[in-house]
Write a structure and sequence with these properties.
488 residues, alpha+beta, Nucleotidyltransferase, domain 5, six-stranded mixed sheet, 19 helices
Length: 488
């Protein structure tokens, strides 16, 4: 196997990192080069992304990489985008998905294209911030911006464009928009016509790793880099699932972070009425796969609790929070993590307390009981989702692979194994960076296939196995019944 140095730049909603990778000796060797913060910016009451600051952070990542770097690639969260003009300049500041403009726009779209028909075409889980609704708001509220734009580019493609001036719509990130036909895997004329968005303003679609482009002369001079930019699986979950060290057809994945993405790889989209009713989504994967999954609110709730505790003078790290949670009474109170009350409350602890009160439960008091309530509820949400996943796909799921930051949390992984009654394989924690690197390696011909790459990741990753405990199944079964009632 040839060897080359590759750079994965992984941007999340709260921060980004650059990971240097090299496939050598049958393994993937990685080293983190730098981390930097990210976050939504409030401007006149609207939420935006500081895209030009992110561009400078990406350039810093290139500067930090060794001069012999062969390629670099950027992945981000889904759905958000920016516009560029014919001269290549950025038009406006990209909105963030948590901005309040989206819900009214969703109602307008569904009046033109009923949700049943929309799902039959795009196969996308209803989320009020899907790109299709954001674009509809642009057409309604700022038509001049759409008219002036030459291209709409999703966030990883936008950063790739600002580095190279190459306009590409990478498939995995495009599949989060709701503008794609899930079957043809092309932009949907029906959906675009329904909302009135010109197809010519969308970039041509490309498979993960299909497109490589040189840095502009200016960026190359600024950074001192000669690396090619690869357009990878630009959706961070697409990259993370590519790195799941699994084989066979009996596994499901949980990509764990702010969101929990619970799903399985399937060869073609599942567009049934039941899949729509259950709010499952069909997103593009690497090597022609479909990621059939559901977005479940994940560590967002605990992240917000931690911030709230910090504001009150309790600066707690994750280890301390987990330790405190073990001291709480098991399965005492539960929440539905997907309840709208937890979307963006001013005080997350108060939101948990109020949810329990209005559902007839004794609210948890203090750090440990509140954290335990959330951890157990997240595990039960995964159990419920896996049960529906098996029914919709016809798969018999025998193991759960947990990747992303949540796989480092031993308490969460043990609860997942106990609640789901499945062996849990935790790792790699940096799955998104590993998948980003893997697609680059495939693009450069260093790795021959996705299956080969997954074997390399399995040989390289530090993984832990968690088996369901011998006792406690009855308590979790009873709690699952209570949780189901909270969800309905």
């Amino acid at each position: 196997m040839k060897s080359a140095k590759l750079l994965a730049i992984d941007l999340g909603a709260s921060g980004g990192k650059a990971v240097l990778g090299e496939f050598t000796g049958g393994k993937l060797e990685t080293r983190e080069l730098r981390r930097f913060p990210n976050g939504m910016v409030d401007v006149h009451g609207r939420k935006h992304w500081p895209v030009l600051r992110l561009l400078e952070e990406v350039k810093e990542c290139l500067r930090a990489a060794p001069p012999e770097l062969a390629s670099a690639a950027v992945d981000t969260w889904g759905v958000d985008y920016g516009y560029v003009g014919a001269d290549g300049d950025l038009l406006g500041v990209p909105f963030a998905y948590r901005d309040g403009r989206n819900a009214p726009a969703a109602e307008r779209v569904h009046r033109r294209l009923p949700s049943e028909r929309l799902y039959a075409v795009n196969g996308l889980q209803f989320m009020p911030f899907n790109t299709v609704y954001q674009v509809a708001d642009d057409l309604e509220s700022r038509p001049w911006l759409v008219e002036k734009a030459d291209r709409l580019l999703l966030m990883p493609d936008l950063l790739g464009f600002l580095l190279t001036r190459r306009a590409v719509a990478e498939y995995t990130i495009a599949s989060t928009t709701g503008l794609l036909d899930a079957r043809s895997r092309q932009w949907s004329p029906e959906i675009l016509a329904a909302i009135g968005f010109p197809a010519a303003k969308l970039a041509p679609l490309a498979a993960p790793g299909e497109t490589r482009a040189a840095l502009t002369a200016e960026v190359a001079r600024e950074t001192g880099s000669r690396a090619e930019i690869v357009f990878p699986a630009g959706h961070d979950t697409g990259s993370a699932v590519a790195a799941v060290p699994a084989s066979g057809d009996d596994w499901a994945f949980l990509s764990s972070g702010t969101w929990f993405l619970v799903g399985a790889e399937v060869p073609s989209p599942i567009l049934s009425a039941e899949a729509r009713a259950r709010n499952f989504t069909n997103e593009g994967g690497v090597a022609g796969t479909i990621r059939f999954l559901k977005n479940v609110t994940g560590l967002w709730i605990l992240e917000e609790l931690r911030r709230g505790w910090g504001r009150s003078g309790q600066e707690l790290d994750w280890t301390t929070i987990a330790l405190e949670a073990t001291r709480g009474k098991p399965l005492a109170a539960l929440i539905n993590p997907d309840d709208p009350a937890f979307t963006a409350p001013a005080d997350m602890a108060a939101a948990v307390h109020e949810f329990c009160r209005r559902t007839g439960q004794t609210p948890p008091e203090g750090v440990g009981p509140t954290a335990r309530c959330v951890f157990e509820s997240l595990a039960l949400a995964c159990r419920r989702t896996l049960g529906i996943l098996g029914s919709l796909t016809g798969k018999r799921i025998r193991k759960l692979h947990v990747v992303g930051g949540g796989c480092r949390n031993e308490l969460l992984c043990r609860m997942l194994a106990d609640a789901c009654r499945l062996p849990v394989y935790a790792g790699p924690a940096e799955a998104t960076a590993a998948g980003n690197l893997l697609v680059q390696a495939m693009s450069l011909g260093l790795v021959g296939s996705l299956a080969e790459g997954r074997k390399l990741v399995a040989a390289s990753a530090q993984m832990r196995e968690y088996l369901p405990s011998a006792d406690g199944a009855g308590a979790w079964d009873a709690a699952a019944g209570r949780f189901e009632r909270l969800c309905s």
